[in-house]
Amino acid sequence: MKAQPVTLEALVDDLISRIDRLDPAAAPRPRIGVDGPATAFGDDLAARLVAALHDRGTFALHVPADGFLRARSLRLERGRTNPDAFYEDWLDLRALTREVLAPAGPGGTGRVLPSLRDPVTDRATRAGYVEIPDGGAVVVSGTLLLGAGLDFDLAVHLTQSDAALTRRTPPDQQWQLPAYTRYRDEVMPEYLADLVVRADDPRHPALVVDD
Question: Does Transferase show up as a keyword for this record (predicted)?
Answer without folding.
Answer: yes
